[in-house]
Amino acid sequence: MSFSQTLWQAHADLFESTLQLPFNRELAAGTLSRERFCHYMIQDAHYLVAYGRALAVTAAKADQAEALVQFAQAAHEAVVVERSLHDGFMRDFGITPEQFARTPLSPACQHYTSYLLATAWSAPFPVAVAALLPCFWIYAEVGRDIQSRSAPHNPYQGWVDAYASEEFHALVRAVCATVDRLAVDATPATLAAMRAAYTDAARLEWMFWDSAYRLADWPVAGPR
C-alpha cells in the first residue's frame, strides 16, 4: 500500500463524516438553501486565492523541476481557472462583485488559509505537499460521491460535475504520486509530520463545509 493510500485509509472515518455533513447531503439532494450555497461560494473564492499562494510557495521549494512545474501550474489553476468557474456561479446566483469584496473571510476560512500559508512557508517541501493534498483529494471524492446520487435537475449540478470530472481526478492522482515519491526517502520524523499535516488539513476541510452550512460568522463584531 502506498503512503498516500495509508493516509486515506487512516482518515476514512473523517471522510465519511465529511460526506454526511448536512451541507453535502442537501447539496446532493438539490435542497441546499441558496443562502448557504452563496455563503459557501464566497468563502471558497476567498479560499482559492490563498490556496493558490500556498501552492506557489510550495512550488518554489520543489525538489525537482517537474514538481516545480506541477505546483506552479496548480497555483495557476486555483487562481485563474477555478476563479473563472466561481465567477460563473456567482453570476448565476446573483452574487455581485461588491458583495464578494465586502464579505470577510469566515473564521473557518481564515483558520484554514492561515494554516496552509504558514505550512507552505515554514515546513519542508514534503510536509507542505501533504498539507495541500486533502483539498485536492477530498473535493474530488466528495464530488464523485455526490454525482453518483445527485437528484435530477439539481441546481448545483455544475459544481458537482466540475469536481467529479476525470480531469480533476487526474490532477489528484498526480499530487498523490508526488506525495508517495517524497515519502520513499523521508525520515520517520518527516513522515510523521506529513501525516499530521494531512490530518490538520482534512479536519479543516470538514470545518469549512460545516461552517458554510451554519452560515458561520465571527462571534464578536469588528470595528465599525
TrEMBL record:
UniProt catalytic activity: 4-amino-5-aminomethyl-2-methylpyrimidine + H2O = 4-amino-5-hydroxymethyl-2-methylpyrimidine + NH4(+); thiamine + H2O = 5-(2-hydroxyethyl)-4-methylthiazole + 4-amino-5-hydroxymethyl-2-methylpyrimidine + H(+)
NCBIfam families the UniProt entry points to: salvage_TenA
Pathway(s): Cofactor biosynthesis; thiamine diphosphate biosynthesis
EC number: 3.5.99.2
Family designation: Belongs to the TenA family.
Protein function: Catalyzes an amino-pyrimidine hydrolysis reaction at the C5' of the pyrimidine moiety of thiamine compounds, a reaction that is part of a thiamine salvage pathway.
Organism taxonomic ancestry: Bacteria, Pseudomonadati, Pseudomonadota, Betaproteobacteria, Burkholderiales
Transmembrane annotation, as ranges: none
Keyword list, A-Z: Hydrolase, Thiamine biosynthesis
The organism's place on the tree of life at top rank: Bacteria
Protein name: Aminopyrimidine aminohydrolase
Sequence ranges assigned to domain Thiaminase-2/PQQC in this UniProt record: 22-214
One Pfam family named in its UniProt record: TENA_THI-4
Gene3D superfamilies: Heme oxygenase-like
Enzyme kind, highest EC tier: hydrolase
